[in-house]
Amino acid sequence: MKIKFLLIGTSLSFIPLTVNAQCVATQDCATLGYTETSCNGGKGIKCPFGNKWACLGANEEEIRDKVCQELGFTSDCNGPEYSGGIGQNCKGKYTQCNCAPGYEWKNGTCLKSTLTGAFGNLYYCNGTVVGVKTSDMVFYVSLKDLGKKNCDKARTLCEKYDFCNNRTGNLPTREEFQIIVNNKSSLNNLFLINGGEELKEDAYVTSTSSKSNCYYFDIWFNSGNFSHADEAAYFRPILKSY
Fold first, then answer.
1. Contact (Cβ atoms closer than 8 angstroms) between residue 103 and residue 96
2. Model confidence, pTM
């Protein structure tokens, strides 16, 4: 196989493997040495300007494999810890992969993440997202409701809720829940993307109270009212970042 000119474009399927190549100013596949309509087992290099191929012998195929490996294309990015390759590939292998949630790229593979703490709009615990917020919020919201309780029980459960490494939460106040409602659409997207659940179009209890009453916030009506302290409603803890 003699290829007189070879253009390396966006794909590493065009790898020069032969010697004595001559550079000529042409884009004609036949002139460049690409004369075959197909190659046995797909072992060849496709002309960058058409549909013709230059086929590789067994030895040339081994050389190509070695070239791919030496260039760092070593991972096929397959497995539950992966979510596809990044950029171009060489013979189906990549230099880097996208990792599945809870994993991070490290030492040439996707390993279980140990990321913990606040990073942008996400709060992690050992690589898993446990809370989200929008850019204009100063607290993170848990990914899921903890059920339905009255305000006293909900407050107690939220203050015992461990976001990560003994960083416990709070039941949001009336004002904090108003911020949650104002950012409901963006928060719901973040909840779903990170394995959580959307806020329900229902009443949520807050920590704001007056005598024997607690302030409840109805998302459906975007309004709040005081209800008896023994009235159960949904609740979701928050983690304050201030």
1. no
2. 0.60
